Amino acid sequence: MIKEIKTHNKYSLKYKQSNHILRYGRFGIKATSFGRLSETQFNTLRWSILKKLKLLTNKKKNFRFWTLVVMNLTLTKFNLESRMGKGKGSIYTKALYIRPGMVIFEFDNITEQQMRNLLDYISKKISLKIILVKKL
């Protein structure tokens, strides 16, 4: 089943990836805009989410947290003094493209109020537009 999103032009975006629905948790954070996160940005975001979750749940470790994206891009870099030609350059980090509709994180065993506080916290840290999704 392929869902469509309306865009400003005549071509419609389709959910080609399978990570547009919640699989594991009760709550999820879904991207609503295009973007790119490097490996260091993503790891820092994950670390800060875990830290904030421990504060919200009073240091109880009964919450569950999943990351559902994989690094699908390698970024290369050349020296500034190098001349044109002679290859592509060495890989210096990995990154991931984020499309609208991708569920980036999933959470379980936390309340909806804690999840809304976490969403406000994450939206200030990340350069993407994100929304909260939940299972019924």
The oligomeric state of the chains shown is single chain
CATH topology of the domain at 28-77 and 90-134: Aldehyde Oxidoreductase, domain 3
Helix content: 10-25%
Q: Could you give the count of β-strands?
A: 9
Which CATH class of the domain at 28-77 and 90-134?
Alpha Beta
Structure description:
Belongs to the universal ribosomal protein uL16 family. The structure is a single chain. The protein contains two helices and nine strands. The chain is α+β, with helices and mostly antiparallel strands and 136 residues long. The protein has a domain at 28-77 and 90-134: Aldehyde Oxidoreductase, domain 3, CATH 3.90.1170. A four-stranded antiparallel beta sheet has the order 5-8-3-9, covered by helices on one side. A three-stranded antiparallel beta sheet has the order 4-7-6. A hairpin with a 7-residue loop joins strand 1 (4-5) and strand 2. The protein is elongated and about 55 Å long. The two termini are 20 Å apart.
Describe the SSE topology.
Layout: E1 4-5, E2 13-14, E3 27-31, E4 35-38, H1 39-56, E5 64-67, E6 73-77, E7 90-98, E8 103-108, H2 112-125, E9 130-134
Antiparallel strand pairs: 1-2, 3-8, 3-9, 4-7, 5-8, 6-7
